Hints:
Layout: H1 2-24, H2 44-48, E1 79-82, E2 97-99, H3 102-137, H4 147-154
Antiparallel strand pairs: 1-2
Amino acid sequence: xxxxxxxxxxxxxxxxxxxxxxxxxxxxxxxxxxxxxxxxxxxxxxxxxxxxxxxxxxxxxxxxxxxxxxxxxxxxxxxxxxxxxxxxxxxxxxxxxxxxxxxxxxxxxxxxxxxxxxxxxxxxxxxxxxxxxxxxxxxxxxxxxxxxxxxxxxxx
Length: 156
């Protein structure tokens, strides 16, 4: 009987130990992670002390940028000049490169001529509308014998 009680006590202690280990995350595969994005930083002078002979300019580790942005050139344009090279530090608004704009300037000139032609067409159509409206207002004062000739002007 004493052996059974001793066996039950040992089993309970083993189960309790396993429960504690799983709760701590050692066997469950879950390590403690903090989901907050806060990082606590202390100056090295506070860690080492003000009178330390350790140089504050020497650090060991790897420095990684917080964000990397890929820049690609347009496949249908040619680059005229590069203003920065790989690894240079840049700030917002710093020009990185410029495209050759010869063909773009020609396109702008061509579109300018197109716009000018459209504006002339619009002006001509507005003049024609004004003339037709004035003809329409003068219609009741005309004689009925002039009606076929008047209507013929409006047929396209």
